[in-house]
Specification:
Structural class: mainly beta
Largest sheet: 6 strands, mixed
CATH superfamily: CheA-289, Domain 4
InterPro entries: CheW, CheW-like_dom_sf, CheW-lke_dom
Distance between the termini: 20 Å
Number of helices: 1
Number of strands: 11
Oligomer: single chain
Protein name: Chemotaxis protein CheW
């Protein structure tokens, strides 16, 4: 992210917490549908679904980021589908999330990256009046 410009991010829920990611990676948001499980796939891959004729891998970001949900917000009702050209190797991929909240504009001054661990999948924490939103990188979950 350019430290000089604002960025629009999609805010979504996983369990009790709020997360966000840069909207430039997102193609669309759809209702969760039937998934076909794939034998011997990585634990974070929930399965695949047909999205307008394209086989799309569906990933559980809770497993990728080791998020332990505590009951609240476990609807698993939306799929954030990534733009294959922006999100890596060109393959169709989406994340299953509990809720989609809103698109917000993040000012570089509201992003705190001093709290980062060694996890390359976390870009920082967005400070807001009503709490924090963890900014994650979709490229961490392939």
């Amino acid at each position: 992210m350019s430290r000089a410009a604002t960025t629009q991010v999609l805010e979504f829920g996983l369990g009790d917490e709020s997360y966000c990611l840069d909207i430039s990676y997102i193609d669309e948001i759809v209702d969760a549908g039937e998934l076909t499980r794939i034998p011997n796939s990585p634990p974070h891959v929930e399965g695949v679904m047909d999205l307008r004729g394209r086989t799309t891998s569906i990933v559980d970001p809770k497993k990728v980021f080791d998020i332990h949900a505590s009951g609240a917000g476990e609807g698993r009702n939306r799929i954030v589908v990534f733009d294959p050209d922006e999100a890596g190797d060109g393959g169709a991929m989406g994340w299953v999330v509990d809720e989609v909240y809103q698109v917000i504009t993040v000012d570089p001054d509201s992003l705190d990256d001093s709290t980062l661990s060694d996890d390359e999948g976390v870009r920082g924490v967005v400070k807001r009046e009503d709490g924090f939103v963890v900014w994650v990188d979709p490229l961490a979950a392939r």
